[in-house]
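Sample intake — Nitrogen regulatory protein P-II 1
Collected from: Paeniglutamicibacter cryotolerans
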Amino acid sequence: MKLVTALIRPDKADQIRSALEAYGVPGLTISPASGYGRQRGHTQTYRGASHTVDLLPKVRLEVLVDDLYCQDILDVLVSTANTGSAGDGKIWVTKVDEVIRVRTGERGMAAV
């Protein structure tokens, strides 16, 4: 089992969620996040005064998937999140040893 974590643009969250649901992903977690990468924020002008926005708004998306479907999920995420501009986000995959559904005690993929 794998945990796929993606940090993406907030305006892409609904589109990515729809694409993952269309693929058949049974569940996911979406949380607000903020941070920066190579982009290092940007400068904005508000009422004539410039200020730097260091932490950019992002969305953290997490999906537990079977090893067999991990590459397909990554392809869906990359193709949907890509705008071709800096700040599109990052995706990483983590090996998951165990998942337990608290209510029933089910383990492994049955708990997902």
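Post-analysis note: The chain has a mean pLDDT of 88.
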